[in-house]
Each structure stands twice: as structure tokens, then as C-alpha cells.
Input
Amino acid sequence: MSGNDVIHQLTINRPSLYVSITLTNGTTLYQQYGEFSVNNETDNYRLYLAGPTEGTLGDSMLDTGNSWVDQSGMYFSTRDRDNDMWSDNNCAAYWRGGWWFNMCYRAFLNGPWSPESWVWPWYPTVVDGQEIKDTVMMIKAH
Output
């Protein structure tokens, strides 16, 4: 069973999602989303994300005013499974990591292990991977 299969099973009842990023200076920023789920493999692990959203990190995943970066409804993409909306390229290959890319992203927590290569982990709040000490995604049942 893949990691996304486990996430699918854990999120069937659409729990809330809590995302935090701890910076190298010790500051921890967070964002909480009211509902979160990942569909099964047949649906390419499509992401469902809904409000309300609140926090100090800023909402970079659910942007209803900017459809090219809204990640809700997006399929999970990897280097060998291009499921994003960028017709000219593969976001997962280009940015070197699997994620729910649209065209491509404003939030991307699966960036390269090399922090100097990790661009815009959570735009516009955190724009450089070298600023990050730790990232966390947690779910909580309603």
C-alpha cells in the first residue's frame, strides 16, 4: 500500500488539515483547513481541500480567486505520472517532487532535499527552502 493509499483511508471522512512550517530562526507558522481528503488511486489521488481556513502561514493551497494555483481538485503528480495542468511540462519533474500540482503551485512541501534548490515552499510567506527547519501536515477528525 502506498503512502497516498494510507492518506486516502485516513481522510475518507474529510478531517481538518493542519500545516506548520518551522523556520530556521525558530518561528513556527501554521495554516488550518476545515476539510481535507485524498481520493483513491483510480482518481489519481485527487486532493479535496475546503475552508474555513485560518492561520499565520497564509492560504497558499486553496485560492478560489486564482484558478491556476488552486490545488483543491488537483491530481497527485510524480515524475513518471504527469497529472498537472501545465500542458508544456511536468511540474513534478521540473520542481523535483511529487505533489498536487496545478500550473504549478504556490504551496509545495515535498521540495528537493537540497534546501538551496527548494523554491517557493509556501509562497508568498516562505519563498526559500533554506529558511525551513521543519514542515508538518497533520489531520484531525471533526
User: Anything to note?
Assistant: The chain has one domain: 3-140. The domain at 3-140 is CATH 3.90.215.10 (Gamma Fibrinogen; Chain A, domain 1). The longest helix spans residues 3-10.
